[in-house]
């Protein structure tokens, strides 16, 4: 069996939503201190809907595929749905990742949450801090 699914290879070779958004409403950057990979997510939000999302990932192929898939999963969705995106959902949508690459999908979930928190903070929107448990 191939180590990577066809979906992983497709999103790695042809990443969707790559780039930056100049006037983003929310930006989230996270890194993994073990592998050194970095992921940055930009969100454009209009009337509670994620109208655009882009990413810049300096990392492994699985991190690029995870970013690409995660952005596809939240594009056009309400903020509340994006907040519920888990790394597990990203892995499932990619038809799996090898065990030692699961942390790459965790970066995608964390970067999106951080970008949403940035959006809330910038707009003075009140939220329950418990929805961002990993934040400082
Ligand atoms: Fe660290 Fe993929 S090896 S994000």
Structure description:
The model has no long low-confidence stretch (mean pLDDT 95). The protein is of the alpha+beta class. The chain has 5 helices and 3 strands. A 3-stranded antiparallel beta sheet has the order 1-2-3. It binds FE2/S2 (inorganic) cluster (FES). FE2/S2 (inorganic) cluster (FES) binds at residues 32, 35, 37, 59-60, 62-63, 101, 103-104, 107.
Distinct compounds present = FE2/S2 (inorganic) cluster
Helices and strands: which structural class?
A: alpha+beta
Q: Please list the strands of the largest sheet in the order they lie side by side.
A: 1-2-3
| Series of secondary-structure elements, N-terminal to C-terminal | HEEEHHHH
Blueprint (SSEs and pairs):
Layout: H1 6-13, E1 26-31, E2 38-46, E3 49-58, H2 61-74, H3 79-83, H4 87-93, H5 102-122
Antiparallel strand pairs: 1-2, 2-3
Helix pairs in contact: 1-2, 2-4, 2-5, 4-5
The structure holds FE2/S2 (inorganic) cluster (FES).
């Amino acid at each position: 069996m191939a180590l990577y699914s066809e979906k992983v290879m497709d999103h790695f070779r042809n990443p969707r939503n790559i780039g930056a958004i100049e006037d983003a409403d929310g930006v989230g950057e996270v890194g993994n201190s073990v592998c050194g990979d970095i992921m940055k997510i930009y969100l454009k939000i209009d009337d509670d809907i994620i109208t655009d999302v882009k990413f810049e990932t300096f990392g492994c192929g699985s991190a690029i595929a995870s970013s690409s898939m995660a952005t596809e999963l939240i594009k056009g969705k309400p903020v509340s749905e994006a907040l519920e995106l888990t790394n597990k959902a990203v892995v499932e949508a990619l038809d799996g990742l090898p065990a030692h690459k699961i942390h790459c999908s965790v970066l995608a979930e964390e970067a999106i949450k951080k970008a949403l928190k940035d959006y809330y903070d910038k707009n003075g929107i009140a939220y329950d801090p418990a929805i961002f448990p990993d934040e400082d």
